[in-house]
Structures are given as structure tokens and as C-alpha cells.
Amino acid sequence: MRNSRRGDVDPFIVMDVMEAARAAEASGRHIIHMEVGQPGTGAPQAALDRLAKDMAAGPLGYTVGLGLPELRARIAQHYRDWYGVELPAERVVITAGASGAFLLAFSALFDTGERVGLGAPCYPSYRQILKALDLVPVDMPTTLAARMQPVAEDVARHGLDGLIVASPANPTGTMLGRDELRALSQACADAGAAFISDEIYHGLGYSDRTATALEVTDEVYVINSFSKYFSMTGWRVGWMVVPEDHVRRIERLAQNMFICPPHASQRLALHAMDCGPDLDRNVDVYRANRALMIEALPGMGLGKFAPPDGAFYVYVDVSEHTDDSVAFCAEVLEQAGVAITPGLDFDPVEGRKWVRLSYARSTEDIREGLARLAAFMADRGAGA
């Protein structure tokens, strides 16, 4: 069978790590999972109970392509409640997870061969989805001084047609404030480039208030998801806020690509938005886990990282110990029973010297994983 070059994308390495960890568990080993960015909790029970009643009341068929009107209205209220942003519900689009939103956004905004900037390190699927759509991902090196985020000057420097930023970011957990978002959006406007803000880790912030790009501009695609703060990874539902004159364009694409997001997932998302106290208790766990990470890692020779402002990751420079992060992570899994992710997933150039650790699981798991890592590093002669 013939092949398309659109299918020639790199693997998502963290999924390979997950499979290696699964195989180790199948052989009887106990593995601590620090590789995957998945909450250790499920969807809020109160929301599940309400969904069960919805499902008992009758079949959940197709919704309209833009999503349930009541969920779109509830998300608009969410922006008023969290950010003080007045947002017409008509600008909200429900998507099949954030991944569905990326497909819609990239298809709506860019033509074949156009250049879209990514601040390396970044979420790897940006790069691969762009490649599959015959677009050009442009990796832009970032610095610890800029907290591993793009800066406004990058837009003109790299001749971009678009820029995607993430705050809090994966894999670093660092955030962009309102001033930085304003500067980046203005740089895009000056260059005639599209601006996309990935905000799927909003709600998972530990110090300063998380800013949305909608506080500084309406000329932006904002992407969010129910996977992280709302703890609904497997339900595959997210949302996107687009400029008013782009709604119909997105609607036509969504109707043809997806018909609609899963109806049951949309119902559950609607109910989960009323479960703030339960969800905030999950954030308290991540906050405690973050403190454990920041305290423990330097003492085992893994102290080079930008302290995360949000999400549930620490991105660590391991260049003093290896120049092959894939082999290093395999060694950690084999010898310590801890699954962590090579930086090559996030940065194909410098990532061989970095690893990502997720602290999304229970505090008990994180404490045990750190103890195992400390013993592993001590055996390598790297402990303090």
C-alpha cells in the first residue's frame, strides 16, 4: 500500500515509556509513574452521578457541531468568574479534546508550507500535527532567563506566520504573565501572524494568578481542555475561543472533521464545572507534590530547572549525568522502577540533555518515587 509523507511523524515518546512501564508491571514489578501528565484522580463523582441521570433519561445523540449551547454558555460564565473577561458564548467552540482544537485551529489559520513558531521545549504533538498538515514547525530556543518561554522578538526573528504559546507550559510548568502575553500578541499583530494560546493547564497554578490571553486581545485562538484541572483525560472534550469572524469558519471544519464532540463527555463537562471545591482539593495535592519535588531534586544532583509555576511537571537538566536522555530514562525505569520522560519528546535538539518528571499522582507515590530516584542517583555517585 502506498504511503503519504503526512504520516511520517515522530512517535510520542512518553507513550513508548508508558508501554515499557506497563510491560514491567505485567512482569510483576511495582512502577512509580512520573512519565505521563494524567491526574491520578478521575472525574468528580457528583458530575458522574448527574451524567448517569442524563443517560437514563434517553439516548445521547449528536449535538450541533459547535457543541452543547448550555456548555458554551457555562464556559463563557467561567471566563467572567475566573478572569473578569466578558465573552459572548457564540465565540466558544466545544472540541474533541485539545487535540481536536489544534487540528481545527491549524486548519483554519494556515496554508500549506506556512511557518508556525514553537518555543522549545514544548508539547511534542504541536510539532507532529503541524507536519501532518504540511505546515512547518519552527523550533525557537528558549532560555532559563526567560523561564523557557518565547519572547516577542522571536516572531520577527524567525519570520513566522503563526505562534503557539502555552502557559502553564508542558514540560516546564512555567507561565506567561499579562505583560508577556500582550507583547507576544502585539508582535504577532505587527507581523501579520496568527496567535494561539494553549491554556489547558489553567486552574493548576501555585503562585501568581494565571492570565488568559483573552485579557489582552481578542485576536487570538485560546485552547483549553477538561483533561487536566477537571480530571477528565479519557473523556476527550475541550474547548476553543476564537474571534467572532472565525466562528463560522471553525463550524464548517468541525462539522466535516468531527460532526460533534462526544455528547456524554459534553454533559459530564457541564456538570464538572460546578464541582470547584472537589477539583481544588486535587490542586492541593499537586501543590504538595510540587513542594516535595523542588525540595528533593537538588539534593540528588538534579537541581537545574526553572521552578514550575503551574501544571504538574518539572523539566530537569541532566547534562551533568548524560547526553542521552532516552537511555537515561530507560536506566531509571530498569534500576529504580520509576518511569520518567526523555526531553527529546519536547526538544529534538537539546532534549537529549533533559528529562521531565510529572507529579500528577498521589503524594504517597511522589514521595516513594523521589526516594527511589535519590537511591538511583546515589548509586551513580551524583548525590549531594
N to C succession of SSEs: HEHHEHEHEHEHEEEHHHEHEEEH
> What does the main sheet amount to?
7 strands, mixed
Helix content: 25-40%
The residue-averaged pLDDT reads 95
What class, by secondary structure content?
alpha/beta
Shape descriptor: globular
| Unreliable stretches | none
Please indicate the percent range of residues in DSSP E strands (runs of 2 or more). Answer: 5-15%
Strand order of the largest sheet: 2-8-7-6-5-3-4
Question: What does the radius of gyration come to?
Answer: 21 Å
Distance between the termini: 56 Å
Put simply, the count of helices is 12
Number of strands: 12
Walk me through this protein's architecture.
The chain is of the alpha/beta class and 384 residues long. Helices cover 40% and strands 13% of the residues. The protein is built from twelve helices and twelve strands. The protein has helices spanning 13-26, 45-56, 69-83, 97-109, 124-132, 153-157, 178-191, 247-257, 263-272, 276-296, 325-336, 363-379, and strands at residues 32-33, 92-95, 115-120, 136-141, 162-166, 194-198, 221-225, 238-241, 313-317, 338-339, 341-342, 354-358. The strands form three sheets. The chain has a seven-stranded mixed β-sheet, with helices on both faces. Strands 9-12-11 form a three-stranded antiparallel β-sheet. It has a two-stranded parallel ribbon with strand order 1-10. Helix 7 (178-191) links the parallel strand 5 (162-166) and strand 6. The model has no long low-confidence stretch (mean pLDDT 95).
